[in-house]
Batch of 3 targets.
Target 1
Amino acid sequence: MTNSATPQWKKNMWALWFGNFATGAGASMSMPFLPLFINTMGNFPKWELTLYAGLAFSGVFLSQAIVSPMWGNLADKTGRKPMLLRAAIGMTISATLTGLSSNVWFLIIIRFIQGTFSGYINNAYALIASEVPTEDSGKTMGTLTTGNVGGQLIGPIIGGYLSGVFGYRLPFYMFGFMMFLASLSTWFFVKEDFTPVKKGAKTGIRDAFKGIVHKRVVWAMIISSMLVMAATTSINPIISLFVKELMHSHGNIAFTSGVIAALPGIATIFAASYLGRLGDHIGPEKILLAGLIFSAVVFFPMFFVTTVLMLGVLRFLIGIANAALLPITQTVMTLETPSRSVSRIFSYNQSFQAMGAVVGPMLASGVAGILDYRYVFLMTTLIVIVNIIVVVVAYKKDHVSVIDVSNS
C-alpha cells in the first residue's frame, strides 16, 4: 500500500535522482581517463592523440544531437519512462563494449553509437518537469541535478583508483553496471501518469513552441545551454594530459586527474539546491547572469596555472558557477513549457547541449594540438563572454524579465 502522504512526483524524483547519480558516476568514472586509454592503443604524436580524444568525446554528443528530437517526439507519444529505459539499457550495453575496444577507431564508433541511446538525464528532467508544482520547480530541478553531480563527484575518484590499479578498461565495465542499476531503479520505482499526444497531432518544432508565451526566453535558455556545455566540456579531452604535464609525468596521474575532474562536483552538489531555491525567490535571471560572470572570472586565470593545486582550486570554484547555470536554464524551460510539449522542448535543448559538447572538445583539441593545453582556458573564457552577451541581448529584445515569468 502506497503512502498517500508522499506525492508520486516526489517518489519519481528520488528514483530518478538515483538514476541520474548512476549515470553521472558511471560516465565520469571512465571519461577523464579516455585520452590515457587511447594512448595505450598506439604511439601517437601529441596532435594525433588530442584529435582522437576530441573525436571520442564528441562522437557520443554528435549522434545525440542528431537523434534527440526524434526521441523527444516519441516521448510525447509513448511517455518518458520508456525513453528512460531505452537510454539506460542502451548505455549499459554500449559502455561495456567500449571497455572491450581493441583499437581507437572501434572505440570512436562505439562512442558514436552510445550517443544514439543516451539521454537518461534529459528525460528525467522532462518527466519531473511535467509533474512538479510550479512553486517547487527550482528546488526540485536543483535537487535532481545533485544526483548527476554527486555521481560526477565520486566517479572520477573511484575511476582514477581503479585505472591506476587495474587498468583503463575496468571503469567502462563499471559504467555498464551502473547503468544496469539505473535500469532496475527506473523499471521498478518510476510510475508515470502519462497522457499521450493525440494521434495525428503535429509534432514539429513550430507546434512544440506554439503554446509558449515567451518564446525568446526559452530560446535564450536553449542557446545558453549549448554554450555552457561547450565551455564546461572543452577541458575533457585534455584534462588528464594537462595534469600529466603539470606533474611532469611523475606520480599517480590517473588518480590525480580523477580528483581534479571531481572537484567541480563537490561545489555544485552543495550549491545547486540552494541556488535553485534562491532562484525561486529572486528570479532565475539574476542567478544565471551571476553564474556566467563568475565562470568567466574563474576560467581566465586557469591559463596561468603552474601547479595541480592551483588548477584544483579554480576547478572547485567553477563548480559553484555550474550550479547556477544548467539547473537554472532547466527551471526556466519548466516554467515556460506546457506539459504536452515538454519532452520535445527538452529534447531540442538536449540537441543543442550535445552540439555544444561536440564543438567545445573539438575546438579544444585543435587549440591544444596547435598551441598548448592552457590556451583552451582562454577559448573557454571567450565562449562564456559570448554566452553573457546572448542572454542579455535576448532578454532585452523580449522585453520581459525571467523574474516576471516565474511569478506568472
Target 2
Amino acid sequence: MRIGVLTGGSDCPGLNAALRAIVRKGVQSYGDSVVGFLDGWDGVLHDRALELDIPAVRGTLPRGGTILGSSRTDPLTAPDGPRRIAETLRNRGVDGLIVIGGINTLTAAAVLADRHGVPCVGVPKTIDNDIHGTDYTVGFNTAVTVATETIDRLHTTAESHKRVLVVEVMGRSSGWIAVHAGLAGGANCVLVPEFPFDLDRVCGHVESRFQATYSPIVVVSDSALPASGEVDLTGLSGIGEWLGREIERCTGHEARTTVLGHIQRGGTPTPYDRWLATRFGLHAVDAVHEGDWGAMVAVHGASVERVRLADAVSRGKRVDASLYADNEIFFG
C-alpha cells in the first residue's frame, strides 16, 4: 500500500516519534511506501509532499516539533476542499491517510472520512489532553513534566523572598496540565476552567500558607476565570498576571507570575510520549491495512485500541470534580 501522513495544528513533542513508527512499520512489516504531506492539511490541498523512507526518519525519535511542518489550515473551509483533498490523494496513489492532530485537525479527518469517503485514520496529539476517547494524547506528558519541573524550581525562590508565585500553564478549555502538574509539583492552589474560582477563597489559601511559614505556589490554566465572570486583561499577558496582581492587592504579599507558554510545547519528548507516539504510529498503520477508515487510535490503560473519530471529536474531555478534589486536599 501507499500511506500518506500529515501533522496538523499546534506542534508538540512526540510527533516525529509517531512519524518514525509509521514509516518503520509500513516499510518493514508491510512493504509500504510512505508520503508525508507538508504543513498539515495545507500540504494536501496544494499537493506539497516528500517521500518518507527509513533513512528520512532515522534519529528523529527524541526530536521535538515535526519534520513535516504544521499549520491550522482547515480543508473543510477551503474552496472545494474535500474534492481537492481526494484528488491529491488519488493523484499521489495514496490508499490511506494517517492524520496526526488535535481536535480541529481530527474533526476535519472525521468529516472527510464519514461524509466524503476520504480514507483517514486519526492519531490524537495535543498537550491539552482534551480529546475524548483516549486516556492520554501525544505531547501531554511532556507538557506536564515541563510544568512540574518549573514548579519545583519556583518553590525555592518563593521561599527565599517570601513571595506568592503564580504559574500560568496552557489549557485551551480544560485544566489537565494544571491538575497533573499542580498535584505533582506540590502547588497550594490549582485553578482550572472547569471550575470558576472565587478570588477571596484563593487569597484565603495564600494567607493560610504564609501562616504556616511557607510561600504559596498557585497554578492556573490560561483559560481559567473567576466565578464573577469576565476579567479585563487589557495590558496584561493573561489570567496569570491578572491573578498575581489581584492576590497582591488583596493580601499585601508580593506576587510574581511565570507564564510557561510555548515552552510546554517545545523540545525533547519525555520517554512516555515517545512510547505513546510510537505505539500510536504502529497501530495506525494496522488500521490503514484493515481499511478501518474513520477510526482513531487511543490508549486505555496500557492497551492501544480504536475508537471512532467522530465520537472522539464530538465533545471535549474535561477535568471532572472527583479528580479536581484530589488537588483541593492540598489547597492552603
Target 3
Amino acid sequence: MSTEADPLAVLGGLPGVADSVDSVRKAVDRVYGHRVMRRRSNEITSEAALRGARGSAALAGADWALEEVRRRSDFGGEGEPWTVGAALRLTAEAGQLLGVWRQSPLRALARLHLVAAGGAVPDETVGRPRLTGESVTEPLVDLPLPDADEVAGRLDGLARLLLAGTEAPALVTAAVVHGELLALRPFGSCNGLVARAAERIVLVGSGLDPKSICPAEVGHAELGREAYARALDGYASGTPEGVASWIAHCGRAVELGARESAAVCEALQRGAA
C-alpha cells in the first residue's frame, strides 16, 4: 500500500518513532519469552487486565491501590467506585470486541461506551456520539472541544483508515486511535476510559500483544496525568514533533505495562504470587 493511501504509515517515519516501535517490540518479546508464560499465561492475562483497569481508573480520577481494586466486589453508586467498576467492565469487554472492531470500529466504540456509561448517564446519550449542544465531562482533557459535525467527520475518517488496513506499526495505530478519541471526546462521558480500552483492542488485534499481557494503561498511569495531558497536547497540535511525542509516550506506556507483567511472571516463578 502506498503512503498516499496509507497516511498512518507516514507517521511511522516521524523522528524517533521507529526507535519507539523497536523498543516496544523488544519489551513485549521479553515478557512473552518468559518461561512462566508457557505454563501460566492465563494468570498473567488476568492479572494484566486487573492492573490495566486500575491504571485507567487512576487516570480518570480514581487512583486506588491495586489491592483495594482486587478486594472490592461492590462498585455501585457514584464517584470513584463507579469509575473503577467502569474500567473493570471495559477491560473485560475489550477482549470480546476484536471481531466487531475489525468489521466496524464505530460499532465497537459505541459498545464500549455503553458498557462504561450505561446506567450512569441519561440513556439517550449512551452509546452514540454527542449531538450539537450536548456537554462533555472529561476533566483530565483541557483541549478545545470539536463540534459535533467535526467529531462525526473525523470518526468516520478514522474508521475508514482502520478498515482500509495499514502498514503502520501497531504502536502507531494504537496511539492514533487513543489520541484521536481523547482529542475528539465523541461521547458525553467516559471518553478517556473508552480511548484506553480502544488502544488495548488495537494492540491485541494487531498481534503485537495477542494475549493482552502488556497493559499500556499501567504505563500511562505510572507516567502520570500531567505527562499524559502534555503528550496529548502534542498530538492535538498536529505538528510532526507533537504527534511523534505522543506516539513515543504511548510506546513508553506499553513498555512499562510489559515490565509490570514481567515482574508478575518473576513473582509467580518465585512462588510469591
